[in-house]
Every structure is written in C-alpha cells, then in structure tokens.
Amino acid sequence: MPNEQVILELDNRGVARLTMNRPEVHNAFDDVIIAKLRAALAEVRENSAARVLVLQSAGKNFSAGADLNWMRSMADKNYQENVEDAGELGALMWELDQLPIPTIALVNGAAFGGAVGLVACCDMAIAEERASFCLSEVKIGLIPAVISPYVVRALGEPAARRYMLTAERFFAAEAYRLGLVDIVAAADSSLETELEPLLTALLANSPAAIKACKNLIQHVSNHPLNPDVVAETARRIAEIRVSAEGQEGLSSFLEKRAPAWLAANTTSATDGNK
Known about the structure:
14% strand, globular, 2-enoyl-CoA Hydratase, Chain A, domain 1, Lyase 2-enoyl-coa Hydratase, Chain  A, domain 2, alpha/beta, three-stranded mixed beta sheet
C-alpha cells in the first residue's frame, strides 16, 4: 500500500475503502489520524458516486486504539485542552455513525479501546474468527467516554456494564453473540469472501432509498413511539413514493425489469473490467 497513514479509494461500483495504514503501531490513532479520517469521511459524504463505505486496516490488527505518544501528550494538557482533544474523537465517531451511506467494518486481529467505538459506529461488521475486542480504558485509569453511546447501543447495557468495567478481552464469537459483529469469517474463509455478498446485496438496492432508510432507522430509534412518529413515517413513505427513484423502482417492479440504478451499476462494473 502507499505510505499514507489513511488511504481512501473508490472503485467503479461505488465502494469506498477507507484504510487505516499504520501497521507498525497496530493502527493506533492520534490527533493527526483522527483529522485524516474525518477528512476522508467528509470526502465520501460529498461524493455522490460513493454508495458503500468499507472501514479496514492494514497489517495484523484492526487498531490498538489511542496512540501511546498521543496519550502521553494529553497528560500534559489542561482540562479545556483535553475537552477539545476528546471532542475531535467524538466528532469522528459521530460523523462515521451519521454517514448517509451503509458502512461496514472489517475487523482483523485486535480492536482495542476507541477502535471498538469505530466498529460500533458502523452499520455492519465482519470479524475474523481470531479477532478480539477490549474496552481497556479503566485499566489505565480512564473511561471509554466518547465511544460509550455507540458501544452501549451495540452491546446493550448489561454487556457494556461487564466489558467496560472489567476491561476483559473478548473474541469474535462473543462479539457476534452480543451484536457488535454481524458475521464471523471462519478460519477457512476471509473477510473479503464474507464481504462480497453484503456488497452485492447493498448495491442491488436503490441508492436514494438506502440513504432514506438509514436516516429513518436513526430517527425512529431516537424518538418514542407516539402520534408524531406515526405521522413522520407516513410523510417519509409518501416522499419516497413520489421521488424519481421511488417511481422508477415501482415501475420496474410492475414491468418486471431491472431498475435503472441496477442497470447502471452493471454497466459500470462491466466498463471497469475492460
């Protein structure tokens, strides 16, 4: 891979690959890496050709979490400087969580500390069978604060209480049982092998509907069920029905033909193979 610490690539299908590329330090992140990841997410958000984001890492481990030298520097900062510093990591988590297109984490090796937050912010996660996870902050007198909304949501409160308080290491099978991971790649398989069916399924769907559906999930998850939510869901389905892709999807279904977005994606993939 190139020497860049963060690499963003977009293929002809619209699959964006965001790679943390610091294998020499187990892809630990600091303020520089956080800024680079945020910039890459902004680039993906603004690129209408991007349809899926895959978050991955080079080397043997997904990420060791916070870089040791970065943590050392934080100890020398005052309270306000630490608030601002933590705010940058918080912004990264928020921006990944709120990205309008589907996101998939590929977890190889270890994911420690803040790296568990990155996984929890993604819509889906695939982990190697040997992958391990650890919310290790309390071991060094800290707490997993800025990642906690996403980790608690992913694990559920009972499991979060255990693994945040004990800092125990747990493995892919347990992460799958708890819902942090969706697919575990067996020893005779690979992350890429398990990824492809997900990409195929996502790319077959309406790009506009995918974005609207992801936003819908976020909305209903954060509001109590009441007449306002019922009215909002009715408004949203009406809006998508009269949209260009909604009309095309209904027409193609009734006419028993492939929708325009699927035909366009097939053409793009064919052109890319020439």
